[in-house]
Amino acid sequence: MASPSMALAKSNPTTRLIAGRLALDFANTASSSHDLSWEDFVTFLTDARVVTPERATRLRTLLASEPLAVDAVLTRILHLRGSLLSIFSSIVQKRGFTKSLIEPINQILRITEGHDELVQQGESWRLNYMAREQGLEWLLAAIARSAAELLVEGPDVPLRRCANSKCRLFFYDDSRTRRRRWCSMATCGNRHKVAAFLGRKAKRTNTVQTASRH
Description:
By secondary structure, this protein is mostly helical. The chain has two domains: 175 residues, Jann2411-like fold; 31 residues. It is 50% helix and 10% strand.
């Protein structure tokens, strides 16, 4: 049987950090491929600023130097992502989910220790969770913590899924009216506007052509 690192090496999802919460962005990586390679995961962590580019370079070398450790954590990565997908889908659909889906989150929270730390972002500050770096499971600590924070918000957490049936990415709706429909106005929102405009234009054209025949 192929190892997880070999089986997962074919995927190459593009990181799209549009969800507003780390755990949601992590779940959204499944939209590009069911699988997730070590390279993909490290790239995601780098783009999400969980690890620095320098640390990412060292992590990538582990695929060759510690393949068994990478295989083990990749299995845990996919298990966590699968649980998050089921949990978030249930929340969006306003239905319950089994307690067993929470266990992968709790497993990571149990074995990882860390602290909150203020990190400067431009002229403002944000609170980041800094995990104690033991083994490789610490790489999932911030994701598990993000998921836990979403869940403790309760059933009314403003978790949405993009209205574009061909997209369906998760996002956290922090808009003023709580009526946001699209994962991003720059992509799906704009496509919807263009499609609506073309539809109205085609309707006007058909109306004019019909009238000219009479």
